[in-house]
Design goal:
heterodimer, A: about 120 residues, four-stranded antiparallel β-sheet, globular, B: about 110 residues, mainly beta, six-stranded mixed β-sheet, about 0% helix
Chain lengths: ~120, ~110
């Protein structure tokens, strides 16, 4: 149980385009999902907390107009990187919080490369 | 400010050589301490949640323990497939539900 999927697993795009990443909790409902960014050989950096049916809460220094988050259902959250630039290239990982245990289960990650 | 420090940063062991990874934390009331395993290019895989001092949990060759200031991940007779980065994170009892992660310990088990 407690499986989280992400799609796509890998995406390459041109500078200036927008990219949408989906995060789904497959076998449980998640009122709260989280989006992280991870640089090579570094730990996870929380970008934002996504609550179903309400606006996301962004961490300090994260541009909310650049990283659009939507959490329209109890099993789906999306992250859209708008007008992507090469510095946005990174490994993006989502997690979904299982409410009974407060445990966050992570997706497999999305490797974004902006050319 | 909630903080997590993991040591060592990297650890190389021979197959079968047992050891422990440390996670020291400061948090304004602990809701839970979490251990994850992360393989290169993948998302973290959940291992354990510990809620209170004195609690212990085991899974195969791994055993996690918790005190009021730190947690240990003991690995007994490791195998090469145990090679990964092990991440520790805490969740505070009050406020947001977010996790505060340590920098991780990169564990390499040589055959």
């Amino acid at each position: 149980g407690a499986v989280v999927s992400q799609h796509p697993s890998r995406v390459i795009c041109k500078s200036g385009t927008s990219v949408k990443i989906e995060c789904r909790s497959l076998d449980f409902q998640a009122t709260t999902m989280f989006w992280y960014r991870q640089f090579p050989k570094k730990s996870l950096m929380l970008m934002a907390t996504s609550n179903e049916g309400s606006k996301a809460t962004y961490e300090q220094g994260v541009e909310k107009d650049k990283f659009l988050i939507n959490h329209a259902s109890l099993t789906l959250s999306t992250l859209t990187v708008t007008s992507a630039h090469p510095e946005d290239s990174s490994f993006y990982i989502c997690s979904a919080r299982e409410s009974n245990t407060d445990t966050q289960y992570f997706g497999p990650g999305t490797r974004l490369t902006v050319l | 400010e909630d903080q997590v420090t993991q040591s060592p940063e990297a650890l190389r062991l021979q197959e079968g050589e047992s050891s422990s990874l440390n996670c020291s934390y400061t948090v304004s009331g602990l809701r839970g301490l979490f251990w994850y395993r992360q393989d290169p290019g993948k998302g973290p895989e959940f291992l354990f949640t510990l809620y209170s001092a004195g609690e212990e949990k085991e899974k195969e060759r791994l055993k996690a323990t918790l005190t009021k200031k730190e947690s240990f991940l003991h690995i007994t007779a490791p195998k090469p497939e145990d090679s990964a980065t092990y991440l520790c994170a805490v969740q505070a009892a009050q406020g947001a539900q977010k996790l505060v992660f340590g920098q991780g310990t990169r564990l390499t088990i040589n055959p």
